[in-house]
Write a structure and sequence with these properties.
The chain has one helix at residues 2-55; strands spanning 62-65, 70-77, 80-84, 91-95, 99-102. The protein has 115 residues and is α+β, with helices and mostly antiparallel strands. 4% of the residues are buried. The chain folds into two domains: 1-56; 58-102, SH3 type barrels.
Length: 115
């Protein structure tokens, strides 16, 4: 009888030790899951959108660079783009990764009344 009781107490101790281990690890697992869903996943989504935008650039698009230049794409060769930045046809060569974004299509130009 005593043997059975000791064996039962030993099993109960093993079960509670197991639960304590699980309860100790559970907050860590939850923190990693929250970190993934609130920080890592959104950043990956933004990176994917930027990559798609940079890969969709075509000749004739108006872009802005991370350096602050705004220009029209004149030619594309692998990862190097040539942009025209002003009315005097200044041309710059930039890398594709240096593109911040596409500029919005300009609205129709409205001339000021002469008077």
């Amino acid at each position: 009888m005593n043997m059975i009781r000791l064996a039962a107490e030993g099993m109960a101790m093993d079960g509670s030790a197991y639960m304590q281990t699980i309860m100790g690890i559970l907050p860590l697992v939850l923190m990693v899951a929250l970190l993934y869903f609130f920080m890592i996943r959104p950043q990956k989504k933004r990176d994917k959108e930027e990559r798609e935008m940079r890969n969709s650039i075509q000749v004739g698009d108006e872009i802005s660079t991370i350096g602050g230049f705004i220009g029209k794409v004149v030619s594309i060769k692998d990862d190097v783009l040539t942009i025209e930045t002003s009315s005097d046809r200044t041309k710059l060569r930039i890398y594709r990764w240096a593109i911040r974004g596409k500029e919005a299509e300009p609205a129709e130009k409205v001339e000021a009344p002469k008077g």
